[in-house]
Amino acid sequence: MSVFGLKEEEQNDEVACYHMARYISSNEAAWRILNFFAHERHLTVVHLAIHLDNNHRVYFSAETARERVSVLRPTTLSAFFELCRGDEFASTRLFPQVPNYYTWDMSKKKWKRRVQGRFVVGHSEIRRPDALGRVYTLHPNDVECYFLWMLLHTVRGPRSLLVLLAVNETLCET
Description:
By secondary structure, the protein is an alpha+beta fold. About 30% of the residues lie in helices and about 20% in strands. Strands 1-6 form a two-stranded parallel ribbon. Strands 2-3 form a two-stranded antiparallel sheet. Strands 4-5 form a two-stranded antiparallel ribbon.
């Protein structure tokens, strides 16, 4: 909407000026008519690392180089494999679904069950808030990692990278 006018006296009605200058696009109008949340929605998004065995991304300085190389810290992926070995519920989930039910503890570098959110039907001890897991995207030219990415979106509850490399009980090299 656009309004143009000429007046001799200056009118200082801020509310009227706001309403006259406000623009609502068709997208915003549809969201408001359908009662969707347009603002004040803050979802937790957890970025999930993906890497081949012993190909962790490592950040170091000159002082911490020896320590970082000698002890590889767990990543979200390696901790997911460990979680699937010890938690029956986690072994029924895909890698991108883990942040829906577990939180990533940065200090301990491990997954722990969520304590907030709605209870999951059939599992009285498991909660699910509004959280999303996002696996870093990979280019198909990085063939090994790309197919690992695809497997992690298909195979439920893998206990290790070797489980993903096994086809009909035959261990494949790639």
